[in-house]
């Protein structure tokens, strides 16, 4: 049942309106409001330390609530590592920073078997990834065999050593950083690993007034962040986010956005056929739903609007696209392609009234 002043959604002509799935009703608006207040306090604590970069901080929270991983890309010195450290302090739980280097080996990350001469048997030494927050600093400096060791960890949230499987603590999130400008001593992330990241956030330089504020703050004792959340509360917030209501027309809009990356000519963009070599995978569809739900909860709503989907689309989809040689020759970026798709694929229109959401409400299951 929906309360007053909640939106229903008007479809585009010819759009089917059958429910895509059924799920329990959305949580009460009071729960969403309380969650939004707590999440706002957590974000504010991070921004006590980080000047500006509001989008990056918000997307870190989106990734946490959506049970996804986040890749931060930016030039050196724009506070990527400091932001992650502050975020981990605010959220609580165990934190580990792994500096990726060319001589790193997989056992340095996940752990290994060690022979005990005294007991004449092998013991398992677990690696540093068995924490709630893993900061993979400069992840593109490690060779492919190390990056591939992260695949099972990120996808299954477990590690296999010596024929045994060891689950990581919950909640669990990998936040990786990389420098986009260096080409020597770096190993580009393979498509399979990029697809494991829910979000890829571009971290820009601070604006002029923000740089002045950075100078002012760092001229005295730098501020520190205080804990606001804990792992148990994070798990509750993740469950609340997974139950945020998604109208089936919003779900269909998400599917159309993803399909437009695979067959752009069917959506009025024939010029993108030779630009896009490989479109977004179904992980992008699930990621858009999960990220939009998380963003809606941060904003105090228990339902997703098309604007939530549009706000997270570039960060969810751009790193999953593989562009062809024509795009590289014309200096076309994946972000520009996603912006074009958002502009061309029409969203459903919210209609505000006092009726129920639907006689048969439809939601999309949360990301597993």
From TrEMBL:
Residue ranges constituting the ChlI/MoxR AAA lid domain according to the UniProt record: 276-341
Domain ATPase AAA-3: 69-199
UniProt cross-references to SUPFAM superfamilies, sorted A to Z: P-loop containing nucleoside triphosphate hydrolases
GO function term, MF aspect, one: ATP hydrolysis activity
Compositional bias segments (type: Polar residues): 1-15
Keywords carried by this UniProt record: ATP-binding, Nucleotide-binding
Region (Disordered): 1-31
Classification via Pfam families: AAA_3, AAA_lid_2
InterPro entries for the chain: ATPase_AAA-3 (IPR011703), CbbQ/NirQ/NorQ/GpvN (IPR050764), ChlI/MoxR_AAA_lid (IPR041628), P-loop_NTPase (IPR027417)
Superkingdom of this protein's organism: Bacteria
Similarity remark: Belongs to the MoxR family.
Protein name as it appears in the record: MoxR-like ATPase
Species for this entry: Propionicimonas paludicola
């Amino acid at each position: 049942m929906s309360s007053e002043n909640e939106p229903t959604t008007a479809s585009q002509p010819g759009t089917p309106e059958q429910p895509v799935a059924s799920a329990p009703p959305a949580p009460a608006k009071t729960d969403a409001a309380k969650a939004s207040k707590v999440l706002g306090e957590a974000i504010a604590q991070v921004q006590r330390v980080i000047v500006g970069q509001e989008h990056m901080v918000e997307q870190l929270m989106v990734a946490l609530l959506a049970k996804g991983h986040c890749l931060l890309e930016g030039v050196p010195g724009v506070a990527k590592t400091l932001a992650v450290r502050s975020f981990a302090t605010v959220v609580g739980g165990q934190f580990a920073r792994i500096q990726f280097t060319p001589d790193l080996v997989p056992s340095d990350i996940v752990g290994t078997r060690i022979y005990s001469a005294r007991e004449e048997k092998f013991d398992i030494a677990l690696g540093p990834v068995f924490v709630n927050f893993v900061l993979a600093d400069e992840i593109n400096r490690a060779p492919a065999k190390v990056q591939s060791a992260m695949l099972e960890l990120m996808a299954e949230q477990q590690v296999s050593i010596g024929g045994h499987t060891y689950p990581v603590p919950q909640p669990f999130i990998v936040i990786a950083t990389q420098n986009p400008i260096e080409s020597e001593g770096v190993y580009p992330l393979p498509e399979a690993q990029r697809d494991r990241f829910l979000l890829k956030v571009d971290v820009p330089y601070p604006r002029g007034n923000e740089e002045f504020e950075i100078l002012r703050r760092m001229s005295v004792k730098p501020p520190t962040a205080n804990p606001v959340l804990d792992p148990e509360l994070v798990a509750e917030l993740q469950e609340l986010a997974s139950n945020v209501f998604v109208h089936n027309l919003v779900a269909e809009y998400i599917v159309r956005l993803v399909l437009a990356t695979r067959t752009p000519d069917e959506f009025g963009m024939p010029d993108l056929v030779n630009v896009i070599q490989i479109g977004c995978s179904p992980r992008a569809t699930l990621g858009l739903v999960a990220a939009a739900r998380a963003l809606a909860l941060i904003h105090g709503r228990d339902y997703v609007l098309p604007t939530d989907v549009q706000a997270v689309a570039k960060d969810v989809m751009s790193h999953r696209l593989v562009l062809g040689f024509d795009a590289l020759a014309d200096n076309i970026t994946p972000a520009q392609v996603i912006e074009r798709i958002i502009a061309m694929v029409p969203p459903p229109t919210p209609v505000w009234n006092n009726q129920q959401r639907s006689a048969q409400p439809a939601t999309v299951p949360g990301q597993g």
